Every structure is written in structure tokens, then in C-alpha cells.
């Protein structure tokens, strides 16, 4: 059965937090959907067997799990080819995602979040110090590793091109240099294409605004906007569009090999996509931009320099 957006959000919420005594107010506040609509959805989903409701106790049935299954995310692609020059000397012998922060590799925080959501079909595209990525296989033996030998001659669209065979059926598309502090930024189920963003009154970094419910005005520096984070989800339909548009830009556009991947769906061919903004908190993800910031987070790097 197909679900409306509100029905999907309700079922995904109950699946995440389990059967228990819920109040309509609690669900309404957490999902940002009116109590009237939540009540209507509960009645409909109970009627078709997706929810078991006993007084205030609400739980998901097997029919509810079956209804959610088409929306379950099963794969992810991670771009990890860059040099990370601003993180030198920590990146002298390893790519930035393999740098440790307080004993934890940056990339492990994303991989652990994906695995916790039941996603193990994961492809990592590496480039700089590519051989170091093989260390991941001890902990994550299911990873697919792809080498981008052109990483230093093109922008990250070349890594996107190498992942086209994996970009299908609904997929997370992620950058690898984000230290995830809240694994809930990776959701087990997704309804629409979206990208993470944290609200800012003003920023000098890459950002976007919302227009009619969708991402707009992607640029560097903005006001009353959302900061860009490189964790996105794409529906099966949009995966096919990305496959087509990445290849078209890479092969046919002047200077096509020098685009960032996100510039294509957000700017260059934005008319082909309707991407939602999935809000997160700034503290959910740490962006470590340079070695000084790394030293502030992990005093061990200060000791190594002394």
C-alpha cells in the first residue's frame, strides 16, 4: 500500500520508538503535524491493520512494517577522495575521513550511523591515500571501495561518476569528512529527496533557503538560511535523474569535470529536482575545517606538536 506523507511520518515514528502509551500531543509536537491530522491517521492506519491501538497504547503491526518497507533505505554512497590540505599535518599519510578525533575515525561516525539504521550496502569512493581506506574493512567488511585516480585533477563530480552503478533504488549520498555526533541524522526510512541543514541567521559558508517547501538559493554566504551539510537522500526516481545529469554534465558541459556534485541538482539543473531540507541542529554534526579546529577538539594533537 502507498502511504501519504503524514501516514508515513507516523508509522516511521512508532517504528523508531516502539509500542507504548503515546499522547496525541506528544506525537503532534515531535512530528510538527496537527493533532487533528495525527488522530485521523491513527484511525485510518488502525482500520487497515497497520497500527494496533489499545486505549492510548499504540504499536506497529506486521502490516505496518510491510507498508514502511518500500521507504526503507538500503544503500549509501560516500565520497572520500579529497586531500584535506587544511588538516595537515594530520592528513600527511591518510585522507581526512581517516583522521581520528579523540580516538575515533571521522568516517566511522557516519558508517556507524548507517549501520545502526540497517544500511550495509555502502560504497566508499576514495582517492588521496586510497590504500588507507582498506583499514576500514576490518570493522566494516561489507564495504565496497572504489579508487578515483583522477581525484587531484577534477572536482568531486568525478567521484560521483565512479559511483553511478550504485546510485539507484533510493540512496544516501554523503560526504565523508563530517564527524557525526547524533546518529539519528541517518534515518532508516525516507519519503522524499532531502538534504540536512541547520538554521542560521547569517553565515559565510555554503547554504540554502527554503522556497515553497523546497531547497532554493544555494550559494556561499547567506542570511536567514540553512547551512549545507553533505548528507543527502535521493528517491529512486531522483537517483535515475542524478545518474543521467551527472553523466551529461561530466561529458558534455564545458569545464564539466570541475563541478562539485551538489552544484548540479541545486543550481545547474535545479529545475529537475524538488529537494526538501531536513533540519538538524548544529551540534548534531561537527565540521572540522582545519588543523587548528582539530587541536581544539582533540588536545592530543597539541601534545604531538609540542
What would you say this structure looks like, in words?
With 306 residues, the protein is of the alpha/beta class. The protein folds into 2 domains: 5-70, Orthogonal Bundle (Arc Repressor Mutant, subunit A), CATH 1.10.10; 72-297, Spore Coat Polysaccharide Biosynthesis Protein SpsA, Chain A (Alpha-Beta Complex), CATH 3.90.550.10. It has helices spanning 5-17, 24-31, 35-47, 62-68, 106-116, 157-162, 236-252, 263-268, 291-297, 300-305, and strands at residues 20-21, 51-54, 57-60, 75-80, 100-101, 104-105, 121-126, 144-147, 171-175, 178-180, 194-211, 214-234, 276-279, 285-287. The strands form 4 sheets. It has a 7-stranded mixed β-sheet. Strand 5 (100-101) and strand 6 (104-105) form a beta hairpin. The termini are far apart. The mean pLDDT is 95.
In short:
The chain contains ten helices and 14 strands. It is of the alpha/beta class.
Quickly list its features.
306 residues; alpha/beta; Arc Repressor Mutant, subunit A; Spore Coat Polysaccharide Biosynthesis Protein SpsA, Chain A; seven-stranded mixed beta sheet; three-stranded antiparallel beta sheet; 10 helices; 14 strands; 31% helix
The spatial strand order of the largest sheet comes to: 8-7-4-9-12-11-13
- Low-confidence parts lasting 5 or more residues at pLDDT below 50? none
Gyration radius from CA atoms, angstroms = 21 Å
What is the element string, with H for helices and E for strands?
HEHHEEHEEEHEEHEEEEHHEEHH
CATH topology of the largest domain: Spore Coat Polysaccharide Biosynthesis Protein SpsA, Chain A
Number of strands: 14
Q: Mean pLDDT, rounded to whole units?
A: 95
- The CATH class of the largest domain turns out to be Alpha Beta
Overall 3D shape: globular
- Name the helicity range: 25-40%
By helix and strand content, what is the structural category? alpha/beta
* Amino-to-carboxy terminus distance: 62 Å
Note the main sheet: 7 strands, mixed
Output the number of helix runs.
Answer: 10
Count of the domains:
2
Percentage of residues in strands: 25-35%
- Architecture (CATH level 2) name of the largest domain: Alpha-Beta Complex
CATH superfamily of the largest domain: Spore Coat Polysaccharide Biosynthesis Protein SpsA, Chain A
Amino acid at each position: 500500500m502507498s502511504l501519504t506523507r503524514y501516514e508515513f511520518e507516523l508509522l516511521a515514528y512508532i517504528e523508531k520508538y516502539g509500542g507504548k502509551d503515546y499522547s496525541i500531543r506528544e506525537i503532534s509536537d515531535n512530528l510538527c503535524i496537527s493533532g487533528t491530522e495525527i488522530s485521523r491517521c491513527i484511525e485510518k492506519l488502525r482500520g487497515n491493520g497497520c497500527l494496533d491501538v489499545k486505549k492510548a497504547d499504540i504499536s506497529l503491526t506486521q502490516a505496518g512494517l510491510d507498508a514502511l518497507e518500500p521507504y526503507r533505505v538500503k544503500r549509501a554512497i560516500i565520497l572520500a577522495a579529497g586531500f584535506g590540505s587544511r588538516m595537515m599535518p594530520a592528513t600527511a599519510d591518510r585522507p581526512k575521513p581517516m583522521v581520528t578525533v579523540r580516538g575515533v575515525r571521522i568516517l566511522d561516525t557516519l558508517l556507524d550511523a548507517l549501520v545502526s539504521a540497517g544500511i550495509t550496502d555502502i560504497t566508499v569512493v576514495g582517492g588521496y591515500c586510497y590504500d588507507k581506506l582498506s583499514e576500514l574493512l576490518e570493522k566494516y567488511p561489507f564495504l565496497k571501495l572504489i579508487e578515483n585516480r583522477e581525484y587531484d585533477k577534477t572536482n568531486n563530480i568525478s567521484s560521483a561518476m565512479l559511483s553511478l552503478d550504485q546510485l539507484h533504488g533510493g540512496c544516501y549520498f554523503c560526504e565523508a569528512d563530517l564527524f557525526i555526533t547524533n546518529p539519528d541524522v541517518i534515518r532508516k526510512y525516507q519519503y522524499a529527496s532531502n538534504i540536512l541543514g541547520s538554521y542560521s541567521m547569517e553565515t559565510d559558508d555554503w547554504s540554502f533557503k527554503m522556497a515553497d517547501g523546497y531547497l532554493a538559493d544555494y550559494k556561499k554566504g547567506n542570511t536567514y538560511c540553512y547551512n549545507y551539510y553533505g548528507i543527502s537522500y535521493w528517491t529512486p526516481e531522483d537517483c535515475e535523474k542524478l545518474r543521467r545529469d551527472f553523466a551529461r554534465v561530466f561529458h558534455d558541459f564545458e569545464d564539466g569535470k570541475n563541478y562539485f556534485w551538489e552544484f548540479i541538482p541545486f543550481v545547474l539543473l535545479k529545475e529537475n529536482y524538488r529537494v526538501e531540507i531536513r533540519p538538524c541542529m548544529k551540534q548534531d554534526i561537527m565540521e572540522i575545517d582545519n588543523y587548528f579546529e582539530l587541536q581544539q577538539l582533540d588536545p592530543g594533537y597539541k601534545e604531538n606538536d609540542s
